[in-house]
Amino acid sequence: MKKLLVAAMTVFFIAINSISVKASEMQIVKIPPLENPETISEEIHEDELQMLAILVMAEAGNQDLKGKRLVVDVVLNRVDDSRWPDTISEVINQKGQFSPMTDGGFERAAQTVTQECFDAVSMELESRLDYKIHYFCAGGYGYGEAAYKHQDHYFSY
To answer: Is-above-0.90 flag for pTM?
Structure first.
């Protein structure tokens, strides 16, 4: 199972270096409900993972690897939670949730996304750092119950 995921992610990482993407061109793919919340489906479409890596660049490109991984956790935890949409792309595109989706930051990040952003996605697909966080904000706590600060981001439950 892990070998298949690693092989798929390797192809995915190679492909991203030559692709320019707009959020509106991403496919929406349903992720089946998870029996074990520590394991996310291997059937997530490449577009979903690419979109997540680009969002990580847009939101946390100036953060360390842990900061990038925590942003991934926010998205994946929302996918797993019935209060949010069921796919990565739907969570990311949900109105008012991620400012890079409306301010041009996503499109700019698509041109500069780094391998570390893809590494953060890959690591969190294998094992998340935090299964409870649902929000993050720069400059102070925004929504939810305050959890902790890591570098420039404040994370909440």
So the answer is: no
**Residues forming beta bridges with residue 157, ordered by sequence position:** none
How many CB atoms are located within 10 Å of the residue 86 CB?
A: 17
The CATH number, out of the four listed (3.30.390.50, 1.20.1250.20, 3.40.50.360, 1.10.10.2520), of the domain defined by the range 2-9+43-130: 1.10.10.2520
Q: How confident is the model at residue 44 (pLDDT cuts 50, 70, 90)?
A: low
Q: What is the rounded distance in angstroms from the CA atom of residue 104 to the CA atom of residue 29?
A: 23
Q: Kindly list the domain boundaries of the chain, sorted by start residue.
A: 2-9+43-130
Lowest mean pLDDT among 15-24, 100-109, 124-133: 15-24
The CA-atom distances, in angstroms, between 73 and each of 21, 40, 82, 92, 121 are: 22, 12, 16, 12, 9
